[in-house]
Amino acid sequence: MHRYRPRAARARFALTPVAVVAAALLQQGNAWAQAEPAPTLKPSPMLREDIPPAVRRQLPTFVEGQSIQGRPDLETVIEGGAELRRGDTVIRADRLEYYQPDDLAKARGNVHINKAGNIFEGPLLELKVDAFEGFFNEPRYRFLRNDAYGEADRVDFIDDKRAIIRNASYTTCKREPGPSWMPDWILRATSIRIDQEEEVGQATGAVLSFKGLPILPVPSMSFPLSEKRKSGLLPPTIGIDNVSGVEVTLPYYWNIAPNRDATLYPTLMTKRGVDLAGEFRYLERDYVGSVRANYLPDDRLRGHDRWGLALKHDGLVPLGTLGPAGVAINVNRVSDDNYWRDFSRTSASLTQRLLAGDGIMSWSRGPLSFTTRVLKWQTLQDPTAPIVPPYDRAPQLVARYLRQDLPRGLEFYTEADYTHFESDPTLTAQPNGKRSFALMQLSRPWQSSWGFFVPKLQLHSTHYEFDSPLASGRRTADRTLPTLSLDSGLVFERDAKYFGRSFRQTLEPRAFYVYTPYRDQSYLPNYDSARVDFNFATIYTENAFGGHDRISDNNLLTLGATSRLLDPETGAEAARFGVAQRLRFKDQRVVLPGETPVSERLSDILFGASVALFPKWVADGTVQYNPKNNHSERTTLGVRYNPGNYRVVSAAYRLQRGLSEQVDVGWQWPLNDLWGQADEKLGAGLGLGEGRWYSVGRLNYSLKDRRIVDAVLGLEYDGGCWLGRVVVERLQSSTSSSNKRILFQLEFVGLTKIGSNALQTLKQNIPRYQFLREQITVPSRFSNYD
């Protein structure tokens, strides 16, 4: 379809539809609204980001200018402000010739193309409009996705997604006025191949210059036009480590498929050798997982080969008519006991002293579920601070059954667990064994908006078979215990006003009583029991221990209360305050090995609060207070101040009396506040403006030892089109040693990053750290529409 319109008709064409609609509405009035259904918007293919080829071929072509002449359906010549428009393509020039049989446009003089938001300008163009095939001489260009621009001798358009730019330049630096201006960084290449479909650029014969100095000459390099994944060499990373020396990593990324990829991380460490590392990730319909491994032959600092393996897999396995079973595999293994100390910044799962090798298969249908598990530990021992290894479970079988729809509101739950525990008896000082545990539980909850009452009856039964006899000579043991608990609470509400704001305030008292008779369990081994943390989540539970080897004898009442401030409009919680204490009527005689019976009638008091009354401030804390000595046994206090993007300060104080006392402070803050420089309102992911310095860091200080435990300190500079980072990191690796390194990184916005991966360190260590450049939204062609 071919339509002509003179320039004067352009305004009339745009206004006519509005006038027609307005007149129709005035004529119809309310009668139209009553007689006809409500009008709806119809979707238009013209509003799509990508116009399908089938639709594109049917789109009309509009031309306009001061002078139009030609032969219908053959050729058209437009002069004086000439314009051709079809779909997402606009061509403007002083003179434009359009040959309709070939769909060929020839433009001369001040030629301007807008193709889906990408701009090209220059003196001469020949282009097949629909196929977008042709050439552009001496163009200037700007790309929508990353706001990059440059100049070239010629652009050859292969199709609407691909182009080759000859003798090209490329930068994302903002153009400043003046003929002598030069961008801070610029990439010059003999050719740049642009692929908008893959969202990648490929430069050959390239030289990257920074501040006028060539810093990276490369025969060929690829760079992203968006955040889309692509195969190829990634920028090298360089770091300085006090143990390993200078570390240089040259990663290669392989985008195997949309759901699979792999990355190779060969790293040269001047004091150790070459570490060969890689990671493979996959995502399928029924399973997902990753494998990461590294191998360092003949570590010069240790005198032997080093390796690490981390495997994770989660998925479903079909079992025919029984339905699918879930499978979870998590395997972590390393070559030696010193691995966690020497490679503290490797994958977090490989830098702990306890490495799990865990395989789980689970199945459920309705109220019934089964779980099979095999767990093997690798314990990395430190001669100066040895630890007792945990028990392997080879295997563990668990069955559970839950019914919450029984008559008269009853709920029933039962659990059966069989586990074979294995470890080194010379280290654990107790025999390996098999444990069978069963729990039956019956409860009847009453719940309403004003309160709840839940009586519960439990029966625990345990049977042991030991691989070797106990000190008493027994090879088996049995234990059966009942438990009765009563949990109740009320909810009171009132309207209140604090700090000039209206709230709905609640008062929620709670009482929890539990009784378990005493059974001597001191002769039983302890395979998996430990005292649970004393906090608001555990103070209302029946057992003082986790695991099944110890069941505490209890005759106690827990009293507590919570008060909350709720926004009456949204229901959002602005503040919460809580207090709780246990009243013990009888000594607790069941304890862990080495502990003494609990004889205090009144437990420590728990105080807790979480406050978010003001948008910029959040604070929370928990205090375990001992009224006998007027001391807090444990205290955790935290506060965060976050007045806006790229401004956050968080502080935490943690006390565990007699063991540790630490202060933790983290921040990200613009230093330009010191000299009163105003922010540019650019939004998240774009920084606060060019020419700004940011201080970033985190400090963990031990008040007990009077020394810094861990520290990350750094500076970031926003140059507009480039970012610079310097980060100093110190991580404690043992009681007497630490790893230190210096990270340098240059980020050329829209192109690449050179140096160490400082961003990963900052994101892992600084709470609520924000990247200075991060794509929050994908640019639309309508944001750069002609």
UniProtKB/TrEMBL annotation:
Pfam families: LptD (PF04453), LptD_2 (PF19838). InterPro entries: LipoPS_assembly_LptD, LptD, LptD_2, LptD_C. GO terms for biological process: Gram-negative-bacterium-type cell outer membrane assembly; lipopolysaccharide transport. Coiled coil: none annotated. Together with LptE, is involved in the assembly of lipopolysaccharide (LPS) at the surface of the outer membrane. Belongs to the LptD family. HAMAP family: LPS_assembly_LptD (MF_01411). This is LPS-assembly protein LptD. It comes from Ramlibacter albus. The gene is lptD.
